[in-house]
Specification:
This protein has 252 residues and is α/β, with parallel strands linked by helices. The chain has helices spanning 27-37, 52-58, 90-104, 128-145, 169-178, 194-200, 228-236; strands at 3-7, 42-47, 65-68, 73-75, 82-83, 111-114, 119-122, 151-155, 159-164, 184-189, 206-210, 221-223. The radius of gyration is 18 Å and the shape is globular. Bound molecules: magnesium ion. Magnesium ion (MG) binds next to loops.
């Protein structure tokens, strides 16, 4: 069977780090991905909110498909990257980035991360007492520079992502899947943004939420993060993708 494996990066392949730059893949993971992409009847895509340059430098694995910026940018092996965005206004994002930088100036623990087609506003290291008012102000400048419904704001793990509406991990996954007719999709991810992919693949493949404790999700199955690499090792060794009943249980 042709299997198209879609993997989120942060929180799925590597643990969530306090700062995005710290989430570096261990050599073991790169070797594992290299093994997987070398298999017949298996394609592997990493689907992430990170931008393409970031993903390419973190994951120098020839043969790996990349869907960067929440699916806005697609890179297939050996081909030139392209975007699925139609007419997004980069200048709006640049204005938002400047306004957000002004907002956090002199405040500790916030980080503005401009990306090619989106902007991430991180607050993982911020003082919890300061977080709520700063987020309110950020949402106000967001509405000014990148207003709904043309733009959407997606909450993640202590991060808000502002991106053009209609571009998401689900759209990217369907786009890649269309390039390999007949393939069976499996999607593994831990984020709110992965829910778009879980919904897009409903009734078409396997969707697996990475979570140590079950939570409301559109995914069919739930897997603790510690079990993800074991599952990939099993696939790399030529094993079949395990049935849901064989999964280790996430805690209650
Ligand atoms: Mg994630």
């Amino acid at each position: 069977m042709r299997l198209f494996l879609f993997l989120d990066y942060d929180g799925t392949l590597v643990p969530i780090a306090a700062r995005p730059a710290q989430a570096v893949p261990p050599p073991e993971l790169l070797q594992l991905l290299q093994k997987l992409v070398g298999q017949d009847d298996l394609r592997v895509a990493v689907v992430s909110g990170r931008d393409l340059q970031d993903l390419e430098s973190l994951l120098p694995v020839p043969g790996l498909y990349l869907a960067a910026c929440h699916g806005a940018v697609i890179k297939t092996p050996g081909a030139t990257p392209y975007t699925l965005i139609r007419g997004a206004d980069r200048q709006q994002l640049e204005r938002l980035a400047r306004a957000a930088q002004n907002l956090i100036a002199g405040r500790r623990g916030f980080l503005v991360e401009p990306k090619a087609f989106s902007l991430a506003f991180h607050y993982r290291l911020a003082d919890p007492a300061e977080t709520a008012p700063v987020l309110r102000e950020f949402l106000a400048v967001r509405q000014h520079h990148c207003p709904a419904p043309d733009w959407e704001t997606i909450p993640g793990h202590k991060v808000l992502e502002v991106r053009p509406a209609g571009v998401n991990k689900g759209a990217a996954v369907l786009h890649l899947l269309n390039q390999w007719p007949g393939a069976f999709p499996v999607y593994i991810g831990d984020d709110r943004t992965d829910e778009d992919a879980f919904r897009a693949l409903a009734g078409r493949g396997r969707t697996i939420l990475v979570a140590d404790h079950p939570r409301p999700t559109a995914a069919q199955e739930c897997l603790p993060r510690a079990a993800v690499l074991a599952l990939l090792h099993r696939l790399a060794a030529g094993g079949a993708f395990p049935a849901a009943e064989e999964f280790p249980r996430s805690g209650g």
